[in-house]
Amino acid sequence: MLTLGISGHFDLLPALYRTYMHDATACLVADGELVAAVEEERFNRVKKTNRFPAGAIRACLELAGARPADVDGIGYYFGHDLVDLGLANFQVANPVQPVRWGVDLLRDRLREHFDWDVPPDRITFARHHLAHAWSSFARSGMADALVVVMDGRGETASTTVYLGGAGGLRELRSYSVPQSLGQLYQDAIGHVGYGFGDEYKVMGLAPYGDPARYREQFRDLYALRPDGDYGITPPIPDINPTVAPFYEAGFRSRRAGEPVTREHRDFAAGLQETLEILAMHVLAHWARETGATRLCFTGGVAHNSSLNGVILRSGLFEEVFVHPSSHDAGAAEGAAIVAAARLGRPHTGVARLTSASLGPDLGRPDEVERRLRAWDAVVDVERCEDVVGATAALLAGGAVVGWAHGRSEFGPRALGNRSILADPRPEANRDRINAMVKKREGFRPFAPAVTPEAAADYFDLTATRADHGFMSFVVRVLPHRRGELGAVTHVDGTARVQVVTPAANARFHELITRFGELTGTPVLLNTSFNNNAEPIVQSVHDAVTTFLTTEIDVLVVEDFLVRRRGPVADALDDLVLTPRPVTRLRRDWRPGEDATGEVYLDYSFGPSAAVSPAVFDLLAAADGESTVAALAGGLPEEARAELLSLWQRRFFVLSPRR
Question: What does pTM read for this prediction?
Fold first, then answer.
């Protein structure tokens, strides 16, 4: 049986693009096996998009060699009651919109994009936490386990506890939305200048702070109760409950972009400690209550790898599994499993998921070479007989390398197929990549990728069994190795380790091994191949664009080494300028003032920038076929620099002439 799982929304208004029904994804499950999975953000280049995942669906079908008619059923990652309630509320707020229900809109989108008329009885709206739970339990390889889903919210719950076994999943307890640990964390990070999707940044900031400073204030926000229960201070109208006691203690919130102070670091540390206390309170109770020795932990909170490290070190379980896509993208997979069960094919055990390489590849070798050589005006392309050995030598010599090969990874972490790599030894590499490549805060840590043969020589993986191949756990770097791993050892002596096996990623394992032979350190710094403006790269074009708009030294795409030939500015006139589907322009004129122009990206929290009249006119004329020279002729130097700056921030696309 072939079932398609979907997350995301139905393209009603741009304002809904990111914050509602986010993490748009498609997954294909064939007879219980996950055969293809990719998030829509990899195609529309909008982080955490919730646009209907047409590109992801198309990619999954192509990967499986399937047609829409081959799909037996479709699963959606929320129950129909919540979906329809949200749509009804949307219609009340936007009365010009006709009343439409979820099943109708889903069928409309499939007809629109694929000419695919799906019978309503082939569509399943899965309960959100049940979808999460199945995605984790089905890939864990465990015959039985405690399965805990912890996120912002499902339909009516924020945490749900299941017992998994041969008979499927049995719900033991759910925790209400007002008890949401995911929502508590998300709301609180706003006070240190972060917002939707930034929880991982605050997790990285927390080790720089002292949780004791605001411990009393955080403890006033919750009460631990018997039997794994707890309460969180109920909201007071017009007052965020996480604010008042902290302000009384002298805390002041940070706006985005402002300096991070000691107070903000201490707040982050207290918040992380609070999450760990409450989550462990739940897990400890249900471990005792059920006697379960294995845990599947999933939902958005399960991407808090510091918490996951605490779970390992607690010794509560003999084995822990965290799905590489525990956020809402993974729930799409679970929805496909639930759909198959509803159609008469309940899930039965399969082997543990060992690789997240489930997305599209970069194309055939001749296609990759053609796409790279199209950029000949700005890059040199060299086919390399031993690209792994050449890359290992470049890394050992101090180069920062963009590395793209094979199928893209499913989930928010680059695991060696779409990665930026560097020598993990010099501490300066951390600061260099944060500032010059990723263009982000200096406190953000990087992950070490290590061979299984060397992992125990560098890291305390604890006595609890876990799959460390997905960067899901923060563990301690052994004290005598911390100086050797200066770029990947966090301020508290920990690291979010990735253990790379040949079975999971043979080429990446070979690269780490070859680097170790040259340097004596079989470890690489591994971070996602993107800048601060876009999701992880998917295609050859994405890889080249990110290479050219950062200070990565060398790009490696499959068997090709790519180096800069010269500044992009020198070839700008011959590049084709294409607006993105979400690119918008607007002019503002007020009496007595000159008109001003602005370019912006049309989705919630999308960026905007003021533009000069010359650049405004150029962007307005862009048609996706004409070069910059054809559109603007002799563009002044100031305007050329402005145009390149806007390109680096991804307001539009530059590409070679076809």
Answer: 0.95
Place 237 in a pLDDT band, splitting at 50, 70 and 90.
very low
User: Per-residue pLDDT averaged across 66-85, rounded?
Assistant: 96
Judge contact between 141 and 351, C-beta under 8 A. Answer: yes
Q: How far is CA 626 from CA 188, 570, 581, 586, 632, in A?
A: 47, 17, 17, 22, 10
Which residues, other chains included, contact 456 with Cβ-Cβ below 8 Å and sequence gap of 6+? none
Contact 289, 226 (CB under 8 A): no
Q: What is the dihedral of CA 358, 360, 361, 364, to 10 degrees?
A: 140
Closest CA to 276 of 259, 297, 250: 297
HSE-up (13 A, CA, CB side) for residue 160:
21
Tokens 């007989």 locate to 385
Assigned token pair, 40? 């829509």
What does the alpha-carbon distance between residue 29 and residue 235 come to, in Å, rounded to a whole number? 41
Q: Put residue 520 in one of left, alpha, beta given phi > 0 → left and psi -120 to 50 → alpha.
A: left
Structure token pair of residue 368 = 């990759």
**Integer CA distances (angstroms), 270 to 208, 228, 266, 439, in order:** 11, 21, 6, 27
pLDDT-derived band of residue 397, with 50, 70 and 90 as boundaries?
very high
Helix (H, G, I), strand (E, B) or coil at 418: strand
The mean predicted confidence, pLDDT, of the chain is 93
d(C-alpha 306, C-alpha 577), whole Å:
43
Nearest-angstrom CA–CA distance, 80 and 622: 42
CA-nearest of 318, 316, 334 to 326 is: 334
Find out whether 359 and 37 touch, Cβ atoms under 8 Å.
yes
Asked if pLDDT for residue 351 goes beyond 90, the answer is no
